[in-house]
Amino acid sequence: MNSRRPLVTVLGASGFIGSAVTAALSRRPVRLRAVARRPSAVPAGAAEVEVREADLTSPSAVADAVAGADAVVHLVARIEGAATWRASESDGLGERANLGVLLDTVGALRGARRAGPPPVVVFAGSASQVCAPVGGRIDGTEPDAPVSVYGRHKLGAERALKQASAEGVLRGVVLRLPTVFGQGPASVAPDRGVCATMIRRALAGEPLTMWHDGTVERDLLYVEDAARAFLAALDHADALAGRHWVVGTGVGTPLRALFTRIAELVAAATGAPPVPVASVPAPPEAAATDSVGYAIDSSAFRAATGWRPEVSLDDGLAATVRAMAGSALVRPA
What we know:
- It comes from Thermocatellispora tengchongensis.
- This is Nucleoside-diphosphate-sugar epimerase.
- There is one protein chain.
- By secondary structure, this protein is α/β, with parallel strands linked by helices.
- It has a domain at 7-185 and 219-252 and 294-311: 3-Layer(aba) Sandwich (Rossmann fold).
- It has helices spanning 16-25, 59-66, 92-111, 149-166, 194-203, 223-235, 237-240, 255-270, 299-305, 313-325; strands spanning 7-11, 31-36, 49-53, 71-74, 120-126, 137-138, 171-177, 179-181, 208-210, 217-218, 220-222, 243-246, 253-254, 277-279, 295-296.
- α1 links the parallel β1 and β2.
- α5 (194-203) crosses α10 (313-325) and α8 crosses α10 (313-325).
- The longest helix has 20 residues, at 92-111.
């Protein structure tokens, strides 16, 4: 084993985005440590990969996971329920996973003694950290005023990472992501986002419902493009450190058009008629931001790294439908 190769730790390696990042890193000349509470799958033939199962809500487990790491990709996140993409105020583990693990990571790296430059930490933030965008575009310059508990957790973690970066403890990079969709390679955890939820409903023959007229737009980023953004962040850490960067396609897709296309693709895969797409009254748990459309202007990140999304929405949706239609993960929402 070549110990001079950099050691990269992926926290949350078995998850939806984590499995895609782990697969991409396994093809690089690095020592890879994949850490999650479930077993992490890595491509056959991948060299210098250490797979660890650990409960990362334990501070000691976090310290062990990041020990000696030259870079950490932090993808630990929690939402409540198998068929939702939301965090809940009543979910006691949400803050521990979404904020506490990052604080433990910073604490462990602060206490470590090492020669050479500070380690890189790339953290998965969220577009939900921003207040309702003016003009429907987010470019990273907006004031932060999250209205969701998930957004508040992510913002707290981001601030702690930036502070540690300013102190020279680490080189912290935050990628604020939009809606990420797809079927992660070898993931043991299904995507619980809006696209996957609607695909499951369509596969179960259920109508796809909206809490508005369907004109609300979302920026939808395919999971493999998201994974490549994390690798780009690792490659350009010195240029990106100490800041947050918004990552997305730049295209806002109306939800009615999205749900209609999902219904069509599922129908083509199953041979059944397309399920209906309908507007329904918003439930009590609906947030004000559910009716605010946005797209991500990631020109700053693109200029700094050269990253570009490569998978079109239609190609990504078609691949996701094919994977879910033949997967044991398919179940009614």
